[in-house]
Amino acid sequence: MTDSPAPLPRHGRWFRVIGGTALIAAGCAAFAVSKALDPQNRGAIAGILGVIFGCTYLGQGLRGHHGGSSLTGRQEGRPRVSLAPGTAALGVVLGWIVPGLGHWIAGLRTKALVYFFVITLTFVAGVALAQGRNLDYQRDWLYFLAYGWNAGATALGWLLTRHLEVDHVIPTLQVGYLYSAVAGLLNVVAVMDFVACCADRKSHGEAPA
Amino acid sequence: MTPLLAIQWVDFGFLPPICLAIAFVTAATHHTEWRPLVRHALRSWAAIIGGILAFMVAISYLFEWLLP
């Protein structure tokens, strides 16, 4: 519970500083090139993810320790809630359908609310920017690979907007795609966090729920 | 290319809200209480936006220098 972050060896620090800077540079370049050359702006997600991961690695390198990984549960003070395997699996499925619902049933209400509001608002902002025209799975199947991680909102949005056609120029259409796709990818982080902090049954005894 | 043009070139305006969402979700993986969570998110958001802004300004000056 209180294990402090492991310090990085010297070569590990430099690897993260140089690698993080290179990732930020590559991310900005991918974003700019995609913006300049690709009318559909498909490289922008990769660019943004490159910058985000680059900042994470650069921060770890400059601080000199991991500071914990959200996926391995090593950070200090991470709450551990032990659930029965069936409840944990149910939480993963519920979190996939509604962001934060898995955390809610595990009793982590603050996390659940943050995940729900941030991810849902990002998704809805994307649909609004695209005027409801970014949820056609035949035309936008590539983006559905990202939307699919936020299943409930995507299914509901598709049901409500499936009759809409792109019949006029929408200047913010590509930005709308990007927002909704990032919301889907952020829900992967939320579900992985649930797995890391709520499905840790072996080391923390039996389930309270 | 001037720095301002470079920032317009990548549509910098829509990055801050999406980076704010990313900052809040990643901060929520580390905290369960509101105050540290919000503090962590805003701090990392400022760092990300500041970093991108500084990088873009630097790159645009570099372009101006390399491609007059």
What features would you describe in this structure?
The complex is a heterodimer of chains A (209) and B (68). Chain A is mainly α. Chain A has 2 domains: 1-78, no CATH class; 79-209, no CATH class. Chain A has 8 helices and no strands. In chain A, α5 runs antiparallel to α8 (173-198). Chain B is an all-alpha fold and 68 residues long. Chain B has one domain (3-66). In chain B, 79% of the residues lie in helices and 0% in strands. Chain B has helices spanning 3-9, 15-28, 34-66. The longest helix of chain B has 33 residues, at 34-66. Classes of the chains: A mainly alpha (209), B mainly alpha (68). Chains A and B meet through α1, α2, α5 and α8 of A and α2 and α3 of B.
The number of helical segments of chain B is: 3
The overall average pLDDT of chain A, rounded, is 80
Number of domains of chain A: 2
Fraction of residues of chain B in helices? over 70%
Strand residue percentage of chain A? under 5%
What's the helix-strand series of chain A?
Answer: HHHHHHHH
> How many strand units of chain B?
0
Shape of chain A: flat
Structural class given helices, strands, pairing of chain B? mainly alpha
Shape, principal axes of CA atoms of chain B: elongated
Low-confidence stretches of chain B: none
The overall number of domains of chain B is 1
Number of strands of chain A: 0
Cα distance, first to last residue of chain B?
Answer: 8 Å
User: What are the low-pLDDT stretches of chain A, counting only 5+ consecutive residues below 50?
Assistant: 69-76, 203-209
Structural class of chain A: mainly alpha
Radius of gyration of chain A: 19 Å
Largest β sheet strand count, sense and barrel closure of chain B: none
Number of helices of chain A: 8
Q: Kindly state the mean pLDDT of chain B as a whole number? A: 78
